[in-house]
């Protein structure tokens, strides 16, 4: 059988946010994942960020749950400090050889107590903080790193380089240090490969202009990010490096190492710098209590993503100055700060003093990544980014190889995450026969029934080597624990989390018939799942467990007060025992999952979602409200890369209609909806009822019908899509036309529609190039506000200028004016370069009309998913869950989320399918555990719980009483704390349990 | 009064402030040992009765801390908590409890330094209020068995 050769495992190279997401989606879809990371820990560049735009979410807060999930996933094998040596074979069956470099620390023994770092005498520049402070030769990459295990830097360690020292080995309480660790090569089989090697920030050292190399008060944006970070070198204090004073006046210099072929060979736009500069400026102002003057020197502000334009407006309103100018000279002042010379829009030379200059440096491909591409035979573009096509945005040139993140071009976090899910789908489209063939399942013994038994609590107090025991008198805590009600057994352990302690706990549970376990040790955030597994291994329900955090919250912070620390440890243990005694076994129920998907919308997004699902072996129903499939793509001529859209769409439609897994319903909409994840039931307007496990909304958007620039009054004024149609039809009038005016931002970036439509600048530049190539004598004018040809699309902008297309900037306050003169249309515009008004009489005035949402209020209400104020569907999380809704089993793709070019639409469609597969692939879903339940006898049916539930998990049943859908409940407890009559209760965090904890605390 | 050490009950959400307290530990950031932490999934789980219960049982102060606005792991739990908290604050004030005894803060899981500073500030403030005598704690010495 051919499928015998297909391997159900995937290699993911790179442990940044893209690699992590791809790994999770792959592992949750039934594939075994080898996640290879070259450094000590996963997390990548995102772990270095303080905040993320445009929500100002704390980066570490949102990434750490993902780090933990990857670190603990039974089907993700994390290979840190590992290099890929070779990949041979072909799609479906590759052989990968890797080298695991020595960590010099036994990961199974290291408890991450940090004693080694304290004693290590060797100070090294700390790369995590961009070398702004020091770390030791033995270190963790950052405090929240996964795996949270130390490692020795072999180039710096005095024992490894000179044979002297050895102090870490002496102080390590767990005997984890092994100086004899050697590199190890390993070979394993995978079916496909996902590359996510990421990027490096551009190093501006060679730019004499900016004086980064010698001026102390010129720093990079990533360095500034670390200054802002709470875990940075100054713990979040913004300083001027030359003297440590708070800056009062600072400048951001945009496009350093981007959009620059003069000094950097990087003609592309780095896509993220405008936004991160605005973010850093806003946060810096916040830190300074508003007493900070910030200027941003820029060429074009590129705030093209969802909510980005509002963010830019917010920055302007906060007093951040935006100066359109490329700075030509930065001169360090004798003591502190710099003088910046620049030429303003009006041609005036200015000079200004700043305490601090931050260089918004671009994203570049590292030499190592370049080498990787070469050695793996991956085609790259002239900037060394991996090549992809618009229609297969995550597939690389070598079959079986896929990519996500900055490897294929500069992009932000949500786009990287989207591509990661897309890559997971694409990489497994040919591996379906081998799904679940290599994944592991945890075998849990049947739980012992403890209902009706009185609580028999076992208490384990951890010494954590000396981490706890050197401060807290653990013996005293144990003696005290023995006096507490229901405690049957209490003892000290050296390391509660070590393998031998775990086994001992299992045997003690059996020996003493313990039915509640309390561990007084470290944080439940890191260790609760581990101990819960131990309980399960002993046949106890894993929810009969409580933890007292006597290390992080006690011995580590009260080291100077052992007596009080011991008292606190006793109190904390008592609190845990009090709660534990009241815990009851929680049931996890299994529900069936219908493996069909409903895709709403038959455009490029919807069709790609359905095809991707089909390639994974899942059926879907595509509902399209029009009589034809294809949506807006039916009107588009070519992509920015010059690919023929009509041809693509034809083949896409054929594939869909020929696919046995896909049913298309035309001329229909969703009428009624019932059910929840795994078990939806949607009735269409044609009366058909569809049972489905997941729903993907891909309802698209429309081109705005302009009311300005004489649109509708003259046939010479058309929209961008109308021009595409004329080009497609080879319209004779168009072919004769000599003069074109393109007007950008028609209806976008204006009050009432405060967003950028993202695709128009590129589309205009691309169309202008096409027109110019056909007729080099054509006169083409583009009237714009900011040109937003982000990433490698900047090349098209440059090509247009090289071909003689004239770009004229206008401002919102002084828009171009169109007047009729007989049949002719006259366009008047102020040209800031010549300082004069220009009059153009074009054959065609082409309006880049905004993309507007369908404002699908009804659909949103039916599926209980939100819309934002512009009418775009609102995803679960703007950064890390770009294709999920907060409601389980609901996903979105395409223009209904936000305007975007076709390659991003297709990536998002594949991503939505990948996320849907993680649900559909499980025939049964486990629900329950820590969820809310309703005591209907107490319920008055007021509906408060329904309204406070963020997940639509609570509803009123036919009797008008509340009921919780366990499949949708996330266990936040909002309902339990809002009910006047205590009808809802959050299992695991009941009122009784929490009252008992409060009582024990006092 | 100067050697008075207040007893404080703290309610932290699992995702942000509890994480900040963990990180303060990792970073060895000292603060006085006056409060005991009750871990909640979300500050949205904070039933106003928990605050009353803590005061009734003799707590000198209560500190509630969760995620920054917009950072809630459960989308909006901290907003619900904030509403309840404001009402609670007014209620306590109207029955004669010094409002300084009840504190609410937002600390993200990366803000260990803020956590340390806030911990010290909360303790100092509650210390300045002196022992809590508003609720008659003597008559309310319930043991664990009674609650169970």
Q: What does this protein structure show overall?
A:
The complex is a heterodimer of chains A (1002) and B (148). Chain A has 1002 residues and is an alpha/beta fold. Chain A has seven domains: 193 residues, FAD/NAD(P)-binding domain (3-Layer(bba) Sandwich), CATH 3.50.50.60; 77 residues, Alpha-Beta Plaits; 165 residues, 3-Layer(bba) Sandwich (FAD/NAD(P)-binding domain); 128 residues, Rossmann fold (3-Layer(aba) Sandwich); 176 residues, FAD/NAD(P)-binding domain, CATH 3.50.50; 148 residues, FAD/NAD(P)-binding domain; 56 residues, Alpha-Beta Plaits (2-Layer Sandwich). Chain A is built from 26 helices and 52 strands. Chain A has a five-stranded parallel sheet. In chain A, strands 15-22-16-17-18 form a five-stranded parallel sheet. In chain A, helix 7 packs parallel to helix 8, helix 12 crosses helix 13 and helix 20 packs parallel to helix 21. Chain A is globular, with a radius of gyration of 31 Å. In chain B, strands 2-1-3-4 form a four-stranded parallel sheet, with helices on both faces. The model of chain B has no long low-confidence stretch (mean pLDDT 87). Chain B has five helices and four strands; from the N terminus they run E-H-E-H-E-H-E-H-H. Chain B has a single domain, classed as Rossmann fold. Chain B is globular and about 35 Å long. Classes of the chains: A alpha/beta (1002), B alpha/beta (148).
């Amino acid at each position: 059988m051919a499928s015998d050769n297909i391997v159900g495992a995937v290699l993911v190279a790179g442990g940044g946010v893209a690699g992590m997401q791809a790994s999770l989606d792959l592992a949750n879809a039934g594939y075994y994942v080898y996640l290879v990371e070259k450094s000590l820990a996963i997390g990548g560049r995102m772990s270095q960020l303080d905040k993320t735009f445009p929500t100002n979410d704390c980066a570490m807060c949102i990434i750490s749950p993902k780090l933990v999930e990857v670190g603990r996933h039974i089907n993700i094998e994390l290979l840190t400090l590992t290099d890929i040596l070779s990949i041979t074979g072909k799609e479906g069956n590759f052989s990968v050889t890797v080298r695991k470099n020595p960590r010099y620390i036994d990961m199974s023994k290291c408890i991450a107590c940090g004693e080694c770092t304290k004693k290590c005498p060797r100070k090294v520049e700390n790369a995590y903080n961009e070398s702004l402070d020091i770390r030791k030769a033995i270190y963790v990459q950052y405090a929240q790193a996964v795996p949270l295990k130390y490692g020795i830097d072999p180039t710096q360690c005095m024992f490894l380089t000179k044979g002297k020292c050895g102090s870490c080995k002496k102080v390590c309480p767990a005997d984890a240090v092994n100086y004899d660790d050697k590199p190890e090569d390993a070979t394993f089989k995978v079916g496909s490969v996902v590359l996510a090697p990421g990027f490096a920030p551009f190093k501006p050292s060679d730019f004499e202009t900016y004086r980064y190399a010698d001026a102390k008060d010129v720093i990079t944006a990533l360095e500034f990010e670390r200054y802002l970070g709470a875990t940075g070198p100054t713990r979040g204090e913004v300083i001027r490096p030359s003297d440590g004073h708070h800056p009062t006046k600072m400048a951001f210099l945009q496009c350093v190492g981007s959009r620059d072929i003069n000094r950097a060979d990087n003609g592309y736009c780095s896509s993220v710098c405008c936004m991160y500069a605005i973010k850093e400026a806003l946060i810096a102002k916040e830190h300074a209590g508003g007493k900070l003057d910030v200027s941003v020197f820029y060429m074009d502000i590129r705030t093209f993503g969802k909510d980005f334009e509002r963010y830019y407006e917010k920055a302007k309103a906060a007093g951040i100055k935006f100066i359109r100018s490329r700075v030509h000279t930065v001169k360090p002042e004798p003591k502190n700060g710099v003088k910046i010379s620049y030429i303003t829009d009006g041609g005036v030379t200015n000079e200004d003093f700043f305490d601090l200059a931050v260089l918004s440096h671009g994203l570049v491909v590292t030499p190592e990544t370049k080498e990787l591409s070469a050695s793996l035979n991956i085609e790259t573009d002239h900037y060394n980014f991996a090549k992809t096509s618009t229609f297969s945005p995550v597939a690389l040139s070598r079959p079986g190889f896929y990519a996500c993140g900055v490897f294929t071009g500069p992009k932000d976090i949500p786009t990287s995450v989207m591509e990661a899910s897309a890559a997971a789908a694409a990489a497994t489209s040919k591996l379906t026969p081998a799904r679940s063939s290599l994944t592991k399942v945890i075998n849990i013994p049947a739980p012992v029934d403890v209902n009706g038994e009185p609580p028999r609590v076992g208490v384990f107090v951890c010494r954590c080597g000396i981490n706890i025991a050197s401060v807290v008198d653990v013996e005293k805590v144990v003696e005290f624990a023995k006096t507490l009600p229901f405690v049957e057994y209490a003892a000290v352990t050296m390391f509660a989390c070590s393998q031998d302690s775990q086994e001992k706990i299992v045997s003690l549970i059996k020996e003493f018939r313990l039915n509640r376990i309390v561990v007084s040790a470290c944080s439940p955030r890191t260790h609760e799942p581990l101990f819960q597994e131990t309980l399960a291994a002993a046949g106890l329900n894993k929810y009969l467990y409580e933890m007292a955090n006597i290390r992080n919250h006690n011995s580590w912070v009260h080291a100077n007060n052992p007596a009080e620390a011991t008292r606190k440890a006793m109190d904390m243990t008592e609190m845990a025992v009090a709660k534990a005694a009241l815990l009851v076994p929680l049931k996890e129920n299994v529900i069936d999952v219908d493996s069909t998907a409903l895709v709403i919308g038959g455009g490029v997004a919807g069709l790609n979602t359905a095809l991707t699902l089909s390639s994974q072996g899942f059926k879907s129903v595509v509902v399209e409200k029009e009589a034809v499939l294809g949506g807006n793509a039916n009107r588009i001529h070519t992509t920015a890369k010059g690919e023929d859209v009509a041809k693509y769409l034809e083949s896409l439609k054929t594939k869909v209609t020929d696919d046995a897994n896909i049913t298309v319903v035309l001329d229909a909409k969703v009428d009624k909806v019932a059910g929840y994840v795994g078990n939806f039931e949607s009735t269409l307007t044609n009366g058909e009822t569809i049972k489905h496990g997941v729903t993907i909304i891909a309802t698209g958007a429309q081109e705005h019908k302009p009311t300005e620039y004489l649109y509708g009054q003259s046939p010479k004024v058309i929209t961008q899509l109308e021009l595409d149609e004329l080009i497609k039809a080879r319209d004779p009038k168009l072919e004769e036309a000599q003069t074109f005016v393109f007007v950008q931002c028609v209806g976008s970036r204006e009050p009432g529609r405060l967003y950028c439509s993202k695709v128009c600048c590129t589309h205009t530049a691309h169309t202008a190039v096409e027109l110019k190539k056909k007729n080099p004598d054509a006169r083409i004018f583009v009237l714009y506000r900011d040109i937003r040809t982000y990433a490698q699309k900047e090349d098209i902008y440059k090509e247009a200028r090289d071909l003689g297309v004239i770009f004229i900037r206008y401002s919102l306050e002084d828009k171009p004016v169109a007047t009729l003169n007989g049949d002719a249309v006259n366009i008047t515009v102020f040209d800031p370069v010549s300082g004069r008004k220009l009059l153009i009489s074009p054959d065609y005035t082409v309006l880049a009309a905004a993309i507007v949402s369908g404002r699908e209020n009804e659909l949103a209400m039916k599926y209980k998913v939100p819309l934002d104020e512009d009418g775009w569907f609102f995803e679960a999380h703007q950064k890390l869950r770009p294709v999920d809704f907060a409601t389980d089993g609901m996903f979105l793709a395409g223009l209904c989320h936000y305007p975007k070019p076709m390659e991003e639409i297709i990536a998002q469609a594949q991503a939505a399918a990948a996320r849907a597969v993680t649900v559909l692939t499980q025939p049964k879903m486990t629900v329950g555990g820590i969820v809310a339940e309703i005591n209907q006898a107490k319920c008055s049916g007021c509906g408060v719980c329904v309204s406070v539930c963020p997940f639509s998990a609570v509803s009123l049943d036919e009797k008008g009483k509340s009921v919780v859908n366990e499949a949708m409940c996330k266990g936040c407890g909002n309902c339990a704390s809002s009910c006047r009559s205590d009808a809802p209760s959050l299992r695991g965090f009941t009122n009784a349990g929490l009252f008992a904890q409060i009582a024990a605390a006092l | 009064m100067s050697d008075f050490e207040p007893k404080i009950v703290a309610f932290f959400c699992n995702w942000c402030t509890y994480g900040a307290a963990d990180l303060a530990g990792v970073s060895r950031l000292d603060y006085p040992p006056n409060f005991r932490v009750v871990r909640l999934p979300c500050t949205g789980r904070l039933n106003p009765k928990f605050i009353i219960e803590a005061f009734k049982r003799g707590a000198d102060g209560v500190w509630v801390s969760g995620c920054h606005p917009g950072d809630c792991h459960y989308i909006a739990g901290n907003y619900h908590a904030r509403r309840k908290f404001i009402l609670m604050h007014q209620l306590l004030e109207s029955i004669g409890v010094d409002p300084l005894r009840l504190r609410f803060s937002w600390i993200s899981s990366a803000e260990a330094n803020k956590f340390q500073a806030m911990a010290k500030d909360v303790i100092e403030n509650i210390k300045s209020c002196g022992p809590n005598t508003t609720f008659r704690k003597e008559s309310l010495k319930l043991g664990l068995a009674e609650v169970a």
